[in-house]
Specification:
Elements (H helix, E strand, L loop, with lengths): L22 H9 L31 E7 L13 E8 L18 H7 L3 H10 L7 H11 L20 H15 L3 H7 L12 H12 L4 E5 L2 E12 L6 E5 L42 E6 L4 E2 L5 E2 L6 E6 L2 E6 L2 E6 L2 E5 L8 E5 L2 E5 L6 E3 L12 E2 L5 E3 L1 E5 L1
Antiparallel strand pairs: 1-2, 1-4, 3-4, 4-5, 6-9, 6-18, 7-8, 9-10, 10-11, 11-12, 13-14, 15-16, 15-17
The structure holds 2-acetamido-2-deoxy-beta-D-glucopyranose (NAG).
Length: 403
Amino acid sequence: MLGSAIALTALAAYSLATPLTSPVDSMNLFKRISSGCSTSGSASCHNTTKQTDLCCFESPGGLLLQTQFWDTNPTTGPSNSWTIHGLWPDNCDGTFSENCDSSRDYTNIAGLLTAQGASSTLSFMQEFWVDINGQNEQFWEHEWSTHGTCYSTLERSCLPSGSATGAEAVAFFNTVVALFKTLPTYTFLANAGITPSSSATYTLSQITSAIKSATGFTPALDCDGSAINQISYYFNLKGSLIDGSFVAIDAPKKGSCASTGLKYPLKSGSPTSTTTSGGSSPTGGSGSLPSKGTIHASTTGGLLTAGTWSTQTLATYTFSGTSSSFTMSTSKGNCGVSSGQLTCGSGVSSSTFSAVSSGGNLLLAFGGSTSFTSDGTPSGTVQQTVFTGTSHSADYNLLIVSS
Ligand SMILES: *[C@@H]1O[C@H](CO)[C@@H](O)[C@H](O)[C@H]1NC(C)=O
């Protein structure tokens, strides 16, 4: 049993005027562990001095790959979604370690998730983190023992005292599922007119450009013969894998696909009734996207009609789509990201955003990253431009609050 003192301390930093958590959310929070780590330091692989607290700084495996399968022979998962392979901690130079701590090769992952308040993560995994031979439990155990045990920020000694056995593995699965929900590859491609087909062929650049226009970053694509079979989205991490923030980056190398003649084969079977994340957020409903709301910064203030950051009265945003993939607009017009800058206005072409459920709050994400930055903090009538990612000095998360 975990103490309430360890319930997502990160939320304390949000200091919003209105409380965002309902009693149901608090119960979920109660069961989740918190790292207590800040997410405002260097991203993994980007430190300029030696980091000493490896519970709060992922090292040496600071290059994270969220890998997804498109399996058609046999088909795994819904016909309108890619499925989760894993989240791997490569070293910053692309080499990697595996099987880092056999004393934590947990069995009965499903049981751990159920016992530790993560049954909605488990049900999502049963649909979207599926083994090609139907051996889901073995697949999850393999992903944990091979890759999960290599995260420095998931060492047992990093956990709050009194944490249940396996709590760090539960945190791992919760995090992988939450990140996957921000990366709906099927939808990203379909929005660019790239859909499975028994006859069409695509070029590698058509596929990577479609993903890049949805996320802002280039992924790596692996092929099985000429058929696309796996995608890898790359990240660095700020803070702990338990509750840190992902910083999307371009793939440092290409995958195995050729440049032309790529097939995107049809899956047999049926589409999932929801989109990749619709309806099954890890916090049981608190993750669903409202149709209208305001966007608050985690530090102070929030967004105005033009998409700028201010401490003045916040604008109403209209959201359309699902939490895994949506567009948004204000009275000024559509909202989009261009050259890393968020703007809303007439003539702005819409970008696709996603939202990640974190401890009962809904965080805006672009390209899989919930990090936003500006050159300073607004006050009075001074507004700040909002940039995606972490390239400017003041960083914060953006919370979607239903109105
Ligand atoms: C970053 O921190 C890690 C962990 O302490 C260390 O191994 C690495 O050398 C550091 N990198 C730099 C450039 O100081």
